[in-house]
Give the backbone structure.
Amino acid sequence: MALTLTTAGESHGPEVVAVLAGLPAGLPVDRTAVDRELARRQHGWGRGGRQKIERDQVEVRAGLRNGVTLGSPLLLAVRNRDWENWSAVMDPWQVDAHKAERKRLTAPRPGHADLAGAWKYGHLDDLRHVLERASARETAARVAAGAVCRQLLAQLHVEIRSAVLALGGVTLLEGPPSFADLEAARDDSALRTVAPHREDELVAMVDAAKHAGETLGGVIGVVARGVPPGLGSYATWEERLDGQLAQAALSVQAVKAVAIGAGLEAAGWPGSRAHDPILAGRAGLRRGSNHAGGVEGGVSNGEEIVLRAFMKPIATLRDPLPSVDLATGEAARAAYERSDVTAVPACGVILEAMMAFVLARAVLAKFGGDCWQDTLAAVAAYRQRLGRLGPEGFAADIR
């Protein structure tokens, strides 16, 4: 079956969970590596008070035995410590009416799912029904699942990195990044940028935005190297790899635009500049450039997969924008919930997780295997078949 990812849980509920179905049996899973990704997601200057409460760690509810997948759905859970403060309001069976009324929201926030979601699901009497699920807290479950997918990809020598390319209108790197560009970013730095020497300036900008009651967006680069050629398909629109990557990135809260490779810049170039020459290499074919971002015709071509995501400023403002109180129909200020000044560095970690899921799904779609050893054998046979006609370096042994 195809690899699928489903998440569930509310921001202030007991936990958020992810179900990965379609993983082959026999894949080793390192819990420490999953927890490391969860910690990376919580890091970054300008984060809100929620990150001081939560200490995210994964718990496995099903699908794993002795650290190895069973081939059945893998159920991952991340507990919400803040549930202790919200249990009377968010209890699944019986809420405390008085406390729930105090937390009821009826003035939708522009830029959030509040109003559109209330229209769709009939929650006009209390927007909390919308915002609890629409919250980016849900992405903790995605990061946990993505961490497992990264471990699958790592056995094929696939690596994924991200870094902040721009923040609050300050550009740190022009154009699409390479994997080497992103290696400049440090996870222990304040903002995980490609220009660590400029982070003091950016920290001051974030602090100024906080003082002004503002929020900041930015641009994140995500690159995968070592990706096998032939993932995705040109045969049907829904199988195109760049389309899958774009949809996955745009599913991340506050991401409003995506570019693959030099997708923005190439729109203004002549064709002779926009495309990547195919050259003979010592150990296979190579490219003179990577403007395509590793995907041609919806299929990976063996070059680095390069994606840029454009994140808008967070919509929850300390000085709220004008809105309407749905309970009275009168003009009002939008509701305010505890929030971040910027979450651009954390967004990169979430985007890595989504790229890992899409690439893992594409690997399993191409090579199959109910047992992980069968998948590895299929990849090895494919490498042998391509030989020197494949991309340079693809003939390396699988560990």
Summary: The chain has 14 helices and 17 strands.
